[in-house]
Structures are given as C-alpha cells and as structure tokens.
Amino acid sequence: MIIIGERINGMFKDIAQAIKDQNPAAVQEWARKQEHNGAHYLDINVGPSSATPIEAMKWLVEVTQEVSDLPLCLDSTKYDAIEAGLKLCKRPAMINSVPAEMAKMERVFAMAAEYGAEVVALAMNEEGIPKDADSRIALAAELVATADAFGIAPDMLYIDPLVLPCNVAQDHGPEVMRTLREIKLISDPAPKTVIGLSNVSQGTKNRELINRTFAVMAMANGLDAGIVDANDDELMAAIASARIILNMDIYCDSYVNVFIQRNR
Ligand code: THG
User: Fold this and answer.
1) Class for domain 122-229, per CATH?
2) According to CATH, what is the number of the domain 1-91?
3) Bridge partners of 227?
4) Residue 126 and residue 218: Cα distance in Å, rounded?
5) Is 164 exposed, middle or buried (0-12, 13-18, 19+ CB in 10 A)?
6) Are strands 2-9 and 225-228 parallel, antiparallel or unpaired?
7) What is the pTM of this model?
8) Which residue lies with its CA nearest to atom 8 of ligand 1?
9) Is the distance from the beta carbon of residue 196 to the nearest atom of ligand 1 less than 6 Å?
10) Which end of the chain is more exposed for a tag (fewer CB within 10 A), N or C?
C-alpha cells in the first residue's frame, strides 16, 4: 500500500499553531518522522480555520520540502491554494481532491495535465456521498471518463470511495469494500484507489484497532493507497504483514523493518 502521511494537517492543533506563528519546527518534525516511518507521500492540508489558505499552503510546501524529498499530496477544496502549492513542488505531486462535479473536474483535471500531477477523485457529487457501492462505482466511472477527456490516464487517478466513521455509518463498510473491488473493472488500466483511513474511527473507542482492521481488509479488497497515521507502528506492522499474506512482498524474517526501510 502506498502510504500518504496524514499528519501535516491544520486539523491538528500543533500544525494550526505552526502556521499561525510561521514557525516551521512542528511541520518539519512531522515531515521527518513520517518519512522515517515509511511514508511515500506527505499530505499537506492547511486545515479548516486558515484565513489565508493560499499563503498557508505555499508556506507548508516550502518548509516541508526543506527537510523531505517525498512527493506531496496537496489536500484542499480551494483550488487556488492547490495551484499555488503545485507551482512550488519540486517533484510531481498529487492533487487531493476533486468530486464528480463538472466545473470542479474541469478545473482540477486541466491543472493536473498542466503540472503532471496525480489526482485523488472522490466518489461523491452535488448530492453528497452515496451509500451503496453501485452509485459510488458510477461516480468513479464518470471521473475516469472525464479525466480521459483531459488526457489523464486512469492510473493517474486515485479513486476515494470515501470512508465515514463506523459508529455513525456502519452500513457503509461493506459497500466501501465492494467499491474497492469493482473499481478495478472500470477501465484498463484501472484507476488506483485511496482512502482516508483515520476517518473510519473518528469518535470510536480503540481507534487504532479499528484503523488497522479496516486497513488490512481494504488491502485484501485491492486498496492501493491510504492517507494514514504513519507513526502508528502497529498499523504499519499490520500493513507490512498484509503485504506478505497477499504475496506483494517476499517474506523474510525482518519483513516489517524491510517495509519501513526500503523507501528511505
Ligand atoms: N479522503 C481524502 N482526503 C482526506 C480524507 C479523506 N484528507 C483529510 C482526511 N480525510 C484524512 N486525514 C485525517 C487526518 C486526521 C484525522 C482523520 C483524517 C483525525 N484527526 C483527529 C480527530 O479528528 O479525531 C484530530 C485529533 C487532534 O486534533 O489531535 O482523526 O477521507 N481524499
């Protein structure tokens, strides 16, 4: 599974404060820690309360790149902020995200083509997030077809079926699993898939257990990438183990260490 580290997000108090104070210490510490623990991308999100999201995004991109060579996943609903970030990215980035709404798809796919960026595409539209797998898959097909019209190949897309907390939307779980499997039938090459893993456990007891159980189940259903807490060692070990069980990595006695170290 491709690990996108979730921690540089203004939803967390220390990152919100860092942005406010223009003090890079917390951002750079999380960048280093997540890379050290096996992240392949770093999610960059200015958070819900930033008054100046464009400036905040530019600053986060710059200070993160001072300490990490990982590619960035620019996470915002404000496309001007994403574009400002893309201009500064040293490596091809990921745009996170676009729903299946025509005006937004046009903006984001044109931007992705211009900057050579991958795109996280959400299985939702103006009507919200559908409950059933078939509706999510129909939206994914719309996203793949529209991206194609902009010259973006399906495997540049990461379809996000959208995961809701299991304490309020328990009936979505099996629908998300089926969505992950059937998305692979939409096109050849197939789009990739991604989830925001920590969403599934928001407000639950024993969050880490819910997260890692969901992660390995989703992997067995074909999940390619996750926006995850890369500093949860038990989660990273569960992902490494699932890769062995699914024959994605060759077994050796130090498989967990190999999983974490090979991308350093
Ligand atoms: N899909 C896509 N992008 C996403 C999400 C998604 N980006 C944001 C989010 N969801 C993924 N990132 C997080 C980051 C943190 C948490 C959940 C998802 C989280 N935070 C604690 C909480 O809310 O309880 C905050 C704790 C604190 O404040 O210290 O759980 O689904 N494409």
Assistant:
1) alpha beta
2) 3.40.50
3) 4, 196
4) 26
5) middle
6) parallel
7) 0.97
8) 196
9) yes
10) C
